[in-house]
């Protein structure tokens, strides 16, 4: 049976991928008390990396799409951790890292691609605190990486 959040995702045309395995010596998520901490998820769709430095090789719309893919990958990790997306009580915090050229300052516009999907999928419970940080480089030259803290019901 599909839950409310999964029905919203389906209505948006989103099929969750398998949660990706860690690429190094860490775990994809940790549950501590009623909080789920999710390791950074990169902008990768169907095995293809969404790459490029913002305001260099990629524009804001490509960055937003990459951030939205990070949200999909984060939600896949939530599903792997909890089994049921309706167990999300609140999206507490997102931290978005944007692969940025030195003069690029629109990181918040890019990370909105992730934030917007969380609100679409989880409604008011998807509204969260957030940081959007420009960095000189990200693994594999991906455009965006986002990590999350989720409160579990």
From TrEMBL:
Full protein name: Enamine deaminase RidA (YjgF/YER057c/UK114 family)
UniProt-listed InterPro entries: Endoribo_LPSP/chorism_mut-like, RutC-like_sf
Annotated Gene3D superfamilies: RutC-like (3.30.1330.40)
Domain Endoribonuclease L-PSP/chorismate mutase-like residues, every copy: 6-143
